[in-house]
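Let us practice reading a record.
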Amino acid sequence: MLKARWASRSLRFRFEAGTSRGVLHEKQSWFLIVSDVAGNIGIGELNFIKGLSTANAERIPSTLDWFCDHINEPESLEKSKEIENHTLTFAIETAFADLKNGRQFLFGDTKFSSGEKGIPIHGLVWMGTSTQMRDRMFRKLDDGFKALKIKVGAIDFDEELRLLETLRNHPRGAEIELRLDANGAFQAKDAMKKLRQLAEFKIHSIEQPVKPADYDLLRELCQTSPIPVALDEQLIEFRPKEAKGQLLTDLSPSFLVLKPSLIGGFKQADEWVELAEKRGIAWWVSSALESNVGLNALAQWVASKNNELVQALGTGQLFSNNIPSPLELKNDRLFYQPHQTWLLDTLN
């Protein structure tokens, strides 16, 4: 017999977090807590981002109530996948993997879970004024990051170009892997012109240059852009496996940015990985403002894959009231420290 309950937490940012959906000061997460008769527990995070998640936030508590009440019914897991467009699935998968294997070995024993090897991640330069972004960019370089991700399309485009020029003129600028994220900000009238201007700065990739709804334009850009295109928001809408394959065949992007907490969990992410690799499309995993519970699940998952790319995982340092964990950032690598403990009583 299993028991389940849930808790929620408003995660407080350490700074004003500028995003494509406005400035954030806090962000809500819910936690599914499953226990067995032996007293073992498993915890999974239900992630929600207003304007990006497909769920209705007001219905999340009742969705969790339903699952907790039906956890011992064989059909409860399958039924839950039909609720709220799979927003609960990431939490369920993580909680049950935790219950079975322990949160150090969610997806098996890896060099990451043993503390031997860290996962390389890029440094995210948060949105702000050009001065703020320049200062944040330099701090990331000082912290030892070898890859940076910078948002474009949010401030004056000429200022963004000057920011990139400043980076490339830095003593370490030439060696930095530079990724851009447009969050769908470009328009048909000037998207290609902007991509050509950005390409002068030797860009690794650009995420979602136009909105998912601009499908024909996106297809054209995937084929003709001087910067390799990565799909991000395009993947959040739930699709059966066959439709996933059709999308990748039709658009033929260079990269996928996988956010398991938003796309329906790890099974869905595994399908994207399988289909992408068959087509020669590279991919990396991205966190999406999860607490350390969700971040650990993402890190454990990607560590179990044969993927040597720089990942888009968080640092664990974003929130002032995050859940204390064995995750630790060293320069540009995220490590799991097995000798450290989780302080999960903060969820009670």
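A brief commentary: The radius of gyration is 20 Å.
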